[in-house]
Amino acid sequence: MPAFKTPFNGYAVKFSPFYEQRLAVATAQNFGILGNGRIHVIDLSPAGPIAEIAAYDTADGVYDVSWSESHDSLLVAAVADGSVKLYDLSLPPTSNPVRSLSEHTRETHSVDYNAVRRDSFLSSSWDDTIKLWTIDRPTSVRTFKEHAYCVYSAAWNPRHADVFASASGDCTARIWDVREPGSTMILPAHEFEILSCDWNKYDDAVIATSSVDKSIKVWDVRNYRVPVAVLNGHGYAVRKVKFSPHRASVIASCSYDMTVCLWDYMVEDSLIGRYDHHTEFAVGVDMSVLVEGLLASTGWDEFAYVWQHGTDPKAP
Amino acid sequence: MATNNSQQSGSGPPPKPWERAGSSSSGPAPFKPATPGSTSDVVEASGTARPGEIVQSNNTTSAVNTLGRPVPPRPWEQQQTYGGAGYGSSLGYNSGLGAGGYGSYGGMGSSYNSGGLYGNSMYRGGGYGGLYGGSSSMYGGGMYGSSYGGGMGGMGMGMGMGGMGMGMGMGMGGPGGPYDDQDPNNPFGAPSQPPGFWISLMRVMQGFVTFFGRVAMLIDQNAQAFHMFMSALLQLFDRSGLLYGELARFVFRILGVKTKPNKIQPPGPHGQHGQQIEGPKSAPAGGWDGVWGNNAPN
């Protein structure tokens, strides 16, 4: 499948939960340090090149993007100026963004849409907080402030409407219930900063965390003294981790070592695939919910790749 | 791939694979069962809703630090921590190299070194608090500091990464400078309006703070890659083996030790040639005196 060239450095890529050929790519100019950002919405076609459906410019880099689970045309973006922006593909570009929510006092680093209740999403920020938003309100519903350092990612439990996990630079991952005043669980998961976390889609008590210590750890929240598995193999900090929507024990990850890896944490030789198609830091990875084995990745080399597991991402 | 799972807007996406797979969890459920209703209703019913709450960044007093160890200061905070240390220090790189340690923030301490040049940190933060971040050093006993003991005032901005450095200094000497009354940080007088130029300068510096904050975050997440890059750079500079050799010579010179010029002596006209080949030269009286070449025989 052909690659999609973005003018800026890629930061995140997400498959649409509605259309199997559609993706959103979040990008930021000058490696996200200084400058503008752009969100691309692209469509794959069976033979031809990747077509761009829409592109939205922002005044600061875009660090993450998430598709709405309730409207097929709605996108949520985490922008480096601390705002969270909502885009509606069905509206003309002049009406976008349909909403810009500015409450975070520092860079917003991730957004995640609630796939169970489908009316809310989370944003996590370098101001140490996580905010819960609903699409019908102009202000956040509540703020979760317990982390002692930047919160790099927050992810909803795929089977529980009220539970989510967060990963922070304070070296802890925390489990939260939106009905509780504080976090319900604190996992001192790594010795170094934790950059990402995700839930197992088939076992709602299992999460994976990835860290600056180059490892991915899989945890059972009912017994979090020891990890279920430790996956070593990346050469540098692991930027994102993602459980497969189709296989219970398969995990995709991308790292500053410029590779995208596929793991099966249940088997002994857990590294089942390694792709080194990126020529710069690989910072975004996703797995299609609608097509089994379809992977997407993006990185600072200004490319977004989509490929079937087992094939060469660079193959035309 | 061509099939289009078209859904009407407003309805949900196709069922997830894991929803089709049926029940979850390999053991007892770890969470309370989900409450039916919309998210906002559920949160409001639980009494935890705080609509639109703005949390000032880095308000860690409210945060529960369960680590049992202090968390590192954020990259963008370090200017305040170290007063006039300048921006270079926030990268913590200079000393990081020297010490060989790359613990996320390693070496911030000693990178203060050049900071001391630029004003004292008496008024660090001053009336501008964290808002202007690193620019606080500008007023930190600098420009307007002359009424508090005079001496060297300064506005310092330093960025140092490895060997690359940039410095800017403005000095104003003598006790009781002409700007005494305008000191915006003077705690004894009514606050005066800072001139527009400074405001704009501070905005620019705020941009610097953001820039270096983000660079430092990346380095923080990626300390080893940065280390590799810098060591590769150093190795490149040291290709011909000159860098460290010259550095060592320089250090010796500073210490007052004159190094021997690395020249090969041409064979002397008086038949010393053979002597050099045949055996060790007989030491003149005083043995080691001439070893550094200060009073070498020729």
TrEMBL record, chain A:
SMART domains cross-referenced by the UniProt entry: WD40
Keywords noted in UniProt: Cytoplasm, Peroxisome, Protein transport, Repeat, Transport, WD repeat
WD repeats: 101-143, 144-186, 187-229, 231-264
Occurrences of domain EIPR1-like beta-propeller (ranges): 149-263
Family matches, as InterPro entries: Beta-prop_EIPR1-like, PEX7, WD40/YVTN_repeat-like_dom_sf, WD40_PAC1, WD40_repeat_CS, WD40_repeat_dom_sf, WD40_rpt
UniProt record, GO biological process: protein import into peroxisome matrix
Pfam family, one: WD40
Transport in keyword set: yes
GO molecular function: peroxisome matrix targeting signal-2 binding
CDD domains on file: WD40
Keyword hit for Cell inner membrane: no
Location(s) in or outside the cell: Cytoplasm, Cytosol; Peroxisome matrix
First-listed, main subcellular location of the protein, grouped into a coarse class: cytoplasm
Cellular compartments per GO CC: cytosol; peroxisomal matrix
Superkingdom as given in the UniProt entry: Eukaryota
SUPFAM superfamilies linked: WD40 repeat-like
Family note: Belongs to the WD repeat peroxin-7 family.
The protein's role, per its UniProt record: Receptor required for the peroxisomal import of proteins containing a C-terminal PTS2-type peroxisomal targeting signal. Specifically binds to cargo proteins containing a PTS2 peroxisomal targeting signal in the cytosol. Cargo protein-binding triggers interaction with PEX5 and formation of a ternary complex composed of PEX5 and PEX7 along with PTS2-containing cargo proteins, which is tranlocated into peroxisomes by passing through the PEX13-PEX14 docking complex.
Protein known as: Peroxin-7
Naturally occurring in which organism (per UniProt): Lactuca sativa
UniProtKB/TrEMBL annotation, chain B:
GO cellular component, one term: peroxisomal importomer complex
Record InterPro entries: Pex13
Keywords per UniProt: Membrane, Peroxisome, Protein transport, Translocation, Transport
Bias type Polar residues, positions: 55-65
GO BP term, pick one: protein import into peroxisome matrix, docking
Region ranges (Disordered): 1-83, 262-298
Top-level taxonomic group: Eukaryota
Subcellular location(s) of the protein: Peroxisome membrane
Compositionally biased residues, Low complexity: 1-11, 270-280
Stated family: Belongs to the peroxin-13 family.
PANTHER family: PEROXISOMAL MEMBRANE PROTEIN PEX13 (PTHR19332)
Protein name, as recorded: Peroxin-13
Species of provenance: Lactuca sativa (Garden lettuce)
